[in-house]
Amino acid sequence: MNRLYFSPASPFARKVRVAILEKGVEDLVAEVEVTTSPIDTNAELAAHNPLGKLPCLQRPDGRVVYDSRAILRFVDSLKANTSLYAKDDTEFDRLTIESLAEGVIEAALLCVYERRIRPEDQVSKAWIDGQADKINRSLDWFETHVLDALEPQFDAACIGLACALGYLDFRKPIGDWRPERPQLTAWYEKVSKRPSLAQTVPS
């Protein structure tokens, strides 16, 4: 059986877990919860992924797949039902949405690690502010450019955005992201009711 190494707090792992539920392939993937950090890598995880990053998927034959975007492609291939990826002229538009959502998560994580790893008197406000600017610009872009395109499907692009917003709620690197973004707020409230997201709320 496929084995997914994950942490319930990881937004990248959450993307994969949501995709597994959306595709209905839970019976093909066993979850293995691990604890790791950038400065204290889990040894079992590092044996499969030299970067020591989550998520990591080990296939039945021992081969591994990472990072989250590669694993999503693999999960999508496990069952020939509705694909998580567009096959028409919107394909690269939706991949761009997915990439931007990934960037929001990365910027949020950089804020979290800056505060968590450095002593309080060494935390760089300029660094935090720079990452917050990236997040806010991206959310403003989502608010004004892509929300109409996200309906009615729930694909890899939507999964990425929903997990990015969920992580912002969980760690709050920029406080409340909702003011002045009513469309994004409404979209997120709607999709958050999906069982795949409700069952994978970060903790």
Helix-strand layout with pairing:
Layout: E1 2-6, H1 11-23, E2 29-33, H2 43-48, E3 56-58, E4 64-65, H3 68-77, H4 91-117, H5 125-145, H6 147-150, H7 156-171, H8 182-191, H9 195-198
Parallel strand pairs: 1-2
Antiparallel strand pairs: 1-3, 3-4
Helix pairs in contact: 1-3, 1-7, 4-5, 4-7
Can you walk through the features of this model?
The chain is α+β, with helices and mostly antiparallel strands. It has two domains: 2-77, 3-Layer(aba) Sandwich (Glutaredoxin), CATH 3.40.30.10; 91-194, Glutathione S-transferase Yfyf (Class Pi), Chain A, domain 2 (Up-down Bundle). It contains nine helices and four strands. The protein has helices spanning 11-23, 43-48, 68-77, 91-117, 125-145, 147-150, 156-171, 182-191, 195-198; strands at residues 2-6, 29-33, 56-58, 64-65. A four-stranded mixed sheet has the order 2-1-3-4. A hairpin with a 5-residue loop joins strand 3 and strand 4. Helix 4 (91-117) packs antiparallel against helix 5 (125-145) and helix 4 runs parallel beside helix 7 (156-171). It is globular and about 45 Å long. The model has no long low-confidence stretch (mean pLDDT 96).
